[in-house]
Batch of 2 targets.
Target 1
Amino acid sequence: MSAPAWAEALVCEVCADAGVDPPRLDWRRRRGDHSTGVARRSDGSIAVRAGSDPLDQRLTLLHELAHWLAPAPRRRRAPHHGLVFYRLAFALYVRHGIAADDALRLESARYASSLRHAASLGVPGAAERLAERRAAQRARPRRQWRVLVPEHPVVLRREGRWHVCATCGQRVVAAALARARRARRPVRHVLMGTEAAATAS
């Protein structure tokens, strides 16, 4: 489906302000409230799978535009969502009508580390949200690891834009995906999970 007019206009406005050529915008619908997106410099495109929440659609598109505008990393292992990225992303959110509280809520739902960077950047409300999150983490009961799926070969299967293990359903990304693709023999892994530790009586 074609992208809505507001999305095309936003891409053109952001890129014109930055003095860069706009990407091609691919737009699809997905079930649920939240949207997902990916910026692909290699083929000059941004793809958005739009959920039903209009505000989240807008933030997702601006998030991917921040990737589009961000300078290419000098190091291969440079953080994908680091301070440099979030300085640009939060500036775009504010400039294009997303209130700081909404930006913090939606962004931290995807990437918890965004709160730390937002606090460093002085985004209003970020320090308080970060303190609340850390307090909640400290209050959680201690958890113990257990094996959910015993060791097994990784058999890659596509699930939307992700690769997953066909046996356990775990996403395989980044270095693990590259290793699984180039291995002459199947890579093996174990799926671990946690459960609340029993409290002593």
Target 2
Amino acid sequence: MIQFSSNSNDSNNPQRRYTQEQVEAILQRALQRQQTNNSGNISHDDLIETARELGIDPSQLEMAVMEQTEVGAVEDAKKTWIAQQKRSFKEHLRSYLIINGILMLINIMTGDPFWAMWPILGWGIGIAFDAANTFWPSDKEIEKGARKVVQRQMRERQQQQRELQRQQKFTIETKGNKLVIQKGNKRLEIG
């Protein structure tokens, strides 16, 4: 139980007490209400100050911020992977409909027996499996897909950093305990 003093001067009101869940819900609701009144963003310094007022150790807050950043990145990666899966399925379905529509049209125009059902049926089984994997993936598949998204994003960031370094025409790297800065044929080692 967390105890807060009431601002009321009424001596008949005992001090209010809240459970941890109630405190979280009240603070969440207050933050949501505040977002409608202003930009909704709270600076890191404001967050630290609020935590101090609530008696939360700043080092614990920093650890929670890092954890939330990691969790947020994973959740974003999961959403990205699911969106990619849906886009891929839509492309697959579009190809299926166009190609099989053309095959049906050819089959109808030639007057042959209905041979177009075989590619429709065969490819349709593949579409059904693709739909199942897209709309009802297992948690394991989502985690695996999210890891791939995170890895791809890291590679892209590294590529952007290399490109930026190349554009700056100098490199900064660490070798052992030394910081090495190189521009052209000039090299500076610190450490």
